[in-house]
Amino acid sequence: MWPETDRVKTLALDVQDWTGHRAGQHVDVRLTADDGYQAQRSYSIASSAGGPRVELTVERIDDGEVSPYLTEEAHTGDRFELRGPVGGYFVWDPDPGGPVLLVGGGSGIVPLMAMARQRTANHDAVPTSLLYSARSWEDVIYRDELERYGKRGDGLEIVFTLTREQPPGWSGYGRRVDRELLAEVAPADLTLTFVCGPTPFVEAVAETLVGLGHEPSRIKTERFGPTGG
Amino acid sequence: MPIISRGFRGRRRDDAPRDRVPPGQYVTDDFPVLSAGPTPHTPLDQWDFTIVGEVDERRRWTWDELRALPSETITVDISCVTKWTKLDTSWEGVSVDALLDGVETSAEYLTAFCDGGYTTNLPLADVTGGQAWIAFGYDGEPLEPEHGGPARLLVPHLYFWKSAKWVRGLRLTTTDEPGFWESNGYHIYGDPWKEQRYWGD
């Protein structure tokens, strides 16, 4: 396991008999206390399919129940129960017939990162823009890897917007995702959009895309609330 | 035997009544929002509710006609497949019994259909006998769009994806036809007390 930011860690899991997954799917993690008490939560898979391990990226929710354990208590060699992969809707489509837009807010980047990794691993040709809204540069998960992807010139464009604090000399966007920003980032012939993040973020992005004339049925959303952790 | 997670204690809520919280669920005071696409906004003057499919004749209510039917206030616990349970939620709505009253059908199942294209399937026996409502009020206020307003199906004894948001009607069917999540890995019936979350549960 390794830290991604101050609040976020990635756990790489060896899963017995893992049957593989599709980018965008999630798993259920179940923890059991020594007196039998159990708690379970869902986490998006961060790794692409076909990798040696199943990676989960977990943000610590301070008053959460499972995420503080996974990010602070668990260490290499620990075991816990996993169920999945789950979900057949919010999943990467390598050939949707036109450009794809991925829009992530905060740790909503995780399933979208699985898609970006899948696209890269498979050399999918579909033009893809990934718009990632984070509070600050320090809060950006997968920073180095995303920067590398953006420089490959293989049709994957990475766009950051930092809503609260920008580093000196920052030339990217520095505000919340709004209509103008989406209009600039979204390809004209956009065919399929995936949006993931906190509910107000997802509501605003999805609604704005509809307002810009994009077909609602081609906007796939995944949301998590403050009680997620 | 489950694997014991070394050092895990959890954040137990001792006030959570065990007989009201299904297995694998935790109690929340929030009302999280989950939906697969943008929130639709159908103007009320274009809204209607229909019962179609295996019926002697199609039934239709405008918004005003639906609101003119006798409504009930319902206080129930709800459980989402994403693990949260919310206790004592208060709704206002029209009983599905009232809408099905006088409808002749040989159907044993139904598909609830919605603005935005969402569908979910249910046995007819699960929406009759005072078990399901078309809800348009929540906590004394009109139901907010992000929670399914103007109206959603309310079937509190099943996982909450069965309580379809933005519902526009019921299509009665002779066979159990998987809806949106039921075609995407989620259980065909969805009983929280049996933890029927996914295919194979």
Taking all residues together, what is the mean pLDDT of chain A? 94
Tell how many strands the DSSP assignment of chain A holds.
Answer: 11
- The first-to-last residue Cα distance of chain B is 18 Å
Share of helix of chain A, binned = 10-25%
The biggest beta sheet of chain A reads:
5 strands, parallel
Could you give a short description of this structure?
Chain A has helices at residues 67-73, 109-122, 143-151, 179-185, 199-211; strands at 2-3, 8-13, 26-32, 38-44, 54-59, 81-86, 100-105, 128-134, 156-162, 192-198, 219-224. With 229 residues, chain A is α/β, with parallel strands linked by helices.
Overview of the molecule:
The complex is a heterodimer of chains A (229) and B (201). Chain A has 229 residues and is an alpha/beta fold. Helix content of chain A is 22%, strand content 29%. Chain A has two domains: 2-86, Beta Barrel (Elongation Factor Tu (Ef-tu), domain 3), CATH 2.40.30; 100-224, Nucleotide-binding domain of ferredoxin-NADP reductase (FNR) module (Rossmann fold, 3-Layer(aba) Sandwich), CATH 3.40.50. Chain A contains five helices and eleven strands, in the order βββββαββαβαβαβαβ. Chain A has a five-stranded parallel beta sheet, sandwiched between helices. A three-stranded antiparallel beta sheet of chain A has the order 1-2-5, covered by helices on one side. In chain A, strands 4-3-6 form a three-stranded antiparallel beta sheet, with no helix packed on it. In chain A, strand 3 (26-32) and strand 4 (38-44) form a beta hairpin. The radius of gyration of chain A is 17 Å and the shape is globular. With 201 residues, chain B is mainly β. Chain B has one domain (43-194): Alpha-Beta Complex (Sulfite Oxidase, Chain A, domain 2). Classes of the chains: A alpha/beta (229), B mainly beta (201). Chain A binds chain B through residues 28, 30-34, 36-42, 63-65, 69, 73-74, 78-81, 83, 86-90, 199, 203, 206-207, 209-210, 216-217, 219-228, and chain B through 2-12, 24, 26, 28, 30, 32-40, 82-84, 116-117, 146, 180-181, 183-185, 197-198.
